[in-house]
Amino acid sequence: MMKRLTLINFLILCAFLCQGFACSAQKVDSSRPNILWIVANDISPDLGCNGNKLVNTPNLDQLAREGVIFQNLFTVGAVCSPSRSGLITGMYPVSIHSHNQFTKYKKALPDPVVPITDYFKKAGYFVSNSSGIQMDKAGYYTGYNFSHDAAKLYDGTDWRQRSPGQPFFAQVHLTYTHRPFKPDPSHPVDPDKVVLPPYYPNHPLARQDWALYLETIQLMDQQIGEILERLKKDGLADNTVVFFFGDHGRPHVRGKQFLYDGGIHTPLIVRWPGNLKSGIKDSRLISNIDLAPTAMTLAGIDIPDYMQGQDFLNETSKPRAYIFAMRDRCDGTIDRIRAVRTQDFKYIRNFYPDRPYTQFNAYKKWAYPVLTLMQVMQSNGELTAEQARFMAPDRPAEELYYLHQDSFEITNLADQPAYQDKLKELRGILDHWLIEADKGKYPEDSSEIIYAQKLMDKEFKEHMERKGLRPDVGDEDFLKYWKKELLKP
Predict the structure, then answer these.
(1) CA dist 266 → 182, 210, 286 (Å)
(2) How far apart are CA 270 and CA 241, in angstroms?
(3) Which residues pair with 243 in a beta bridge?
(4) Are 35 and 74 contacting, i.e. CB atoms less than 8 angstroms apart?
(5) Is 300 left (phi over 0), alpha (psi -120 to 50) or beta?
(6) How far apart are CA 372 and CA 382, in angstroms?
(7) Strand order in the sheet with 323-327
(8) In the Cβ-directed half-sphere of 139, how many Cα atoms lie within 13 Å?
């Protein structure tokens, strides 16, 4: 009996000493899963496992077979910095003053909001962030549109830098499929087999540009394979929850920067060996601000009351009936668009109906060959009605689409009598959300706008000069440049 009591006292003493010397169970508890976010730039669900037969994505297809494909992930923003700001906080960008892209005077997050890295660190996790697959050599990749110090947010760039037995929350950010696209000589995509959305002209230049986008996805898939193999070699695959997703939709005309599904719909695959059923598809609506609380819950971290995201892996969570998306100033291009989406309908509100969708944006102009193609074809009267609508000098104040019958969001039902009840319903839902969540300042400070527009003009000049072109080159001559670059014999 005395020996037993002595043993118990000894164990209690050991536990006390461990706490005193900061070797708490949180830091060495290997039973808690590691969490890995693999984040790709500018990608829609254009993968083999999502049904695209032209693209070769064996590594992501395998990940999908071993995990779950969440078919309806939508990002809160259609451009990088607002979307990533929401991702790392679990908050809508308009609620934390991070909704305009590339601000000069970045604001601190409003109390009590903090990046989720703070919570993971306090829970004993090693928190890493890498700007590529060379994690031991890479720098940080943030893009957050609030004031921050990446070196304070993160412990390092590589999960291998952690203490023995310490769980990790790692982010690996891939620049693919951001433009400029890169060819994949090992699996070239035949442009003649590309079937474009009907809002693009079926032109050789457009098909070639889309084929290169798919080839860039293939290069990204090869990087995915390297990351997953590294995880396996480290003996970590079985105890790591892997998330693959994009920061927003594909970088094409009417995609990135806009709130159609092409701009906010992105793939999501989650693998958690022994815990998630493998090889299934889940069609629930998920917002990318849900990724933060989901990761926190996996780590045993309580979700703060202020957080607007929700844990989508919790079977008791009520599925989202709506997702909300927003677009504001991108570079120096001023805009304000809001959207609410259900499983069946999309409602879009344009706060600048007097402006064209294609008001000048330097990045879009220098990088998107199909934009110049469509501008020339519009001048020549060569676009269909569906294609010409996006090139019009103005736009409707409201847009409503029945997605089951119109997945490309072409037929605006906002003026049709049969859909007025649905229009009023979604208009009211958005109105309520604007009051509750949209804390942005409108109009934005003029100093920010002037800064952004001067920067945009400077970058446009530099990019055009790299192409050997004058900034004021005409559309016809610019189109000749693109044809020479992309349609080589």
Answers:
(1) 20, 17, 10
(2) 7
(3) 37, 270
(4) no
(5) left
(6) 13
(7) 323-327, 337-341, 345-350, 398-402
(8) 6
- 311 touches 298 (CB < 8 A): no
80 given a catalytic annotation? yes
Instruction: Give, for 268, the enclosing helix (H) or strand (E).
Output: strand 268-271
434: exposed, middle or buried (Cβ count in 10 Å: 0-12, 13-18, 19+): middle
Side chain identity at residue 330, one-letter code: C
Determine the Cα–Cα distance for residues 398 and 347; give it in Å rounded to an integer: 7
3-state secondary structure of 187: coil
CB–CB of 71/281 below 8 Å? Answer: yes
Name the catalytic one among 14, 23, 49, 80.
80
Helix axes 369-379, 204-233, angle to 10 degrees: 160
Q: Where are the beta strands (DSSP E) in 131-189?
A: 168-174
Token duo for residue 372: 């110049």
Contact between residue 401 and residue 409 where contact means Cβ atoms under 8 Å apart: yes
Predicted model pTM: 0.93
Q: Is 484 helix (H, G, I), strand (E, B) or coil?
A: helix
CA-CA-CA-CA torsion sign (149, 151, 157, 158): negative
Contact 351, 337 (CB under 8 A): yes
Q: Which residues contact 161 (CB under 8 A, 6 or more apart)?
A: 126, 128, 136, 155
Token pair of 5 as six digits: 């009591």
Q: Tell me the residue ranges of DSSP E strands in 126-261.
A: 126-130, 168-174, 240-246
Residue-level pLDDT at 343:
98
- Rounded mean pLDDT for each run of 10 residues along the chain, 489 residues in total: 38 36 37 95 98 98 98 97 97 97 91 98 98 93 95 96 97 96 98 97 98 98 98 98 98 98 98 95 98 98 97 91 98 97 98 98 98 98 97 98 97 98 98 97 94 96 98 98 92
Q: Which single residue is written with the structure tokens 């609508």?
A: 389
119, 240, 328 from 30: Cα distances, Å? 18, 11, 43
The CA-CA-CA angle for residues 56, 61, 67, to 5°, reads 165
Count H helices and E strands in the chain, helices first: 15, 12
Residue 102 pLDDT: 83
